[in-house]
Amino acid sequence: MKALQRSRIGQWPVNLAKRPLRAVLFLLILIFFIMPIARLVYMAFSGESGLTFIHFKDLLAQPRTWIVLKNTMIVVGGSTLIASAIGMLLAWLMAYTDLRGKKLMLFLLYLPLIIPSYISTLAWTQFLGPEGLFEKMTSWLPFAVGPFNLYSMTGIVLVMGISHYPLVYLLTVNVFKKIPRDMEQAARCAGASRRKAFVKIVLPLAFPGIVGGGFLAFLASLDNFGIPAFLGIPARISVLSTYIYEQVIGFGASAFSKAAVLSVLLGIIALAGAGIQWLFLRRAKQAETAIIDHEPRYFLGRMRLPVECLLWLFFTITSIVPLIAMVMTSLLPAYGVAFSWDNLTLKNYAFILETSPKAKQAMFNSLKLALVTTGTGMVIGTLFAYLRVRRPNRLLKTAEGAISLPYALPGTVLALGMIFTWMEPVPGWNPGLYGSILIMFIAYMTRFLILQVRGSVTAFMQVDESMEEAARVSGTNGLAKWRKILVPLILPGLISGALLVFLTALTELTVSSMLWSAKTETIGVVILNFENAGSTAYSTAFSSLIVGCILIGGILMLILQFLWKRKVARHS
Amino acid sequence: MTTAIRNVNKTFGSFQALHDINLDIGEKEFVAILGPSGCGKTTLLRILAGFEKPTSGLIHMDGTEVANAKKTLPPEKRNLGMVFQSFALWPHLNVRQHIEFPLKHHPAASETLRQNIGKRTDDVLQIVNLEPFADRQPGELSGGQKQRVALARAIASEPSLLLMDEPLSSLDAELRMGMRQEIERLHMLTDASIVYVTHDQNEALAMADRIVVMNRGRIEQVGPPEEIYAKPRTPFVAAFVGKANLIKGRWQNGMFRPNLAPYLQWPDHDIADELKEQGLYTLRPEQISITNELDLGLKGTVQSVQFQGKEMHYAVDCRGESFVIHTPLSSRFAIGAEVALRPDLPGLSAKQSESMEPGVQHMVYL
Questions:
Q1: CATH number of B3-229
Q2: What ipTM was estimated for this complex?
């Protein structure tokens, strides 16, 4: 009945004139979310005499462009394959088998998601590099393993694959769990072997999740800037995201239009990926139940212990040991000094916290940006989510699509769009946003708002409408309803959304690397600059500090969550 | 409070949920709105609450217009309490806080109540027998206790209209019976009129002063429970409330001749004129007896036999039409048995014989 009622919202442009609030919302969405992309595309096609393909022609005539495109394909393809393979295998194991200690494994599994990828990259270089921890750990072997040169295509593909497998895991694990176990049992009763039942029943049903996870890894690889920036730039290997950055930073002739064309190319590749995903999913069927079944279905038996050992080894090596290697480097007075008690020093940390004005300024900037983005996001995103859940209509659905666009786009592309839009919002008027911290704030707001919207939408969906109606019948539809009923009920979802925004904004690198100026460096930018200047001791110390803060924050969060759950005994 | 519903229509898109509803609810009256799911009863309740707007028509409460097609007074400004089907308890507040909430926030709560929130909360806790559970969270309560909290919250601010949306449907059968008494007691204790929506005819019959039977967005019949049960005016009410068998035939000189066996004559047991005009006769399952003297009634074959403890339930097929019959345990017939059905209307034969001409009487049960 409600769906029918809502279908009467047609001809919304006409309605807009009648409802000023909607008109304002529509306008804001247009300015903040659509404009940057429109300006970027316009930039790529505009020449001295109207629209032109000349920039494309020029660019595609350069052999360097083709090398960059080829590199991008290899990096994106390779890392997506690695991430998908590891992610799916782990998802299957965690969803279906009787492994022990799954909770702790999950924590280690999610660690690469929480730690910004440029910090994990730094950690990996310290772990696998010459004189690194890995070399020492394997020195007892009769043959030499490594050292590996991570500053190479292989290095980029490997680190990116390992950074992105949790994304694939995240999307596939519940798909596996949601497949009703009796579907497989029915196949077994109908005479299929375990293998056949898996191939014929489970796999096709899990297919949408697998493709979705793979697509997410694809997008993340395309978007990723930190890994190719840390590993590729020193080795003169460019992929699209770093190549755009190099153009903008280089400020050469026609740098902006060249960067715009590259961004459009990047956008086209992302769209092509979406098209392939659509082709795959067109005929896919979903299982009808949505109940998540956490109980194990396969018992590993004698294989359990070996499998568990292998998994622990994998998690420790990929999630923890590189970080330890990084912390070890940060405690040494200079790069290459042997690690021993006598050599340990805290002077790198002292430099970051005391001496270096840049590091302090960056911490202040990042914290300010993250706090303001999170705060405004919490209010705007939650109000938007409320409307989206309680009064869904076409305008809000379109608006949600528009809000999610800047997050789906590669960060370099968005940053470029921001420059084009806010350098001269109206021709002839430069409000001085570009170069100030304000443009970064606008960019963060645009890029991360969707994270808060999603968190709050999930939270509101879990609050039955009757909760709110009960408050209204009890006499309040205003502040008291929000303060006493709605906010406490959505708080867990609200906070987890806000925390994600805060964490992402705090350690953001891609957008700020394009928008920073002398006084507006962020944590990510400063670490990148330390690293590019060869000050590995400082970059590792700064990164270790950040990782420490994230871990402490995470533990505090878990404690809060635990207390909350105890307070609200599960509402059955 | 008196409530008047005048010509209310409600459409959702192309679907008309309510057709021309007219109803008056009196001071302190307990009105049950009874109907199958999708009949519009919940929509009507939500319009009374102020959650939905009527597409056309008016709602008056105590003489003031609270809703028309253009403007509607929101729920928080109407003086009412509501019990939701899902209870709608707030998981983060304890029982006491639930009761205090309307006392603190309802604009219609009287000044006396506002100044004595603690005392009123204690009183309400006592009314619903929840004193020992005042500090519990909803997650720590049983189904019946949750129901009491929902009731307590609804009555706390002494609203003059109490709306209940299938309040017992999420409880098990045993608890439902107990809660019925609870709600009746509550009705005695408060001065509120109650509108109670349900699809369970037993609940409506047991508690209401008046029942409104709804079907497909229309009111079928309004009346006291006895009348709705004993003298249905539409085939739907007969079938839905009394589970009556509807028999087609002809009315002649105050007697009914079923089409299946026109040679039989059945007496009028106060059947409504509306049904008579449609050539219908009703027999509730307990108003039929089964006999193996085939000449005495409507011939048929036993299709199913169900032992129900205090009675037997039969389904009998009479030339393609199925009859549901409840009989005392004493009579037992097997599946496939050839039997005859005849009205079993205790208390009627005496009345009948007075009004009948001599000589016709022997045909009455043939």
A1: 3.40.50.300
A2: 0.80
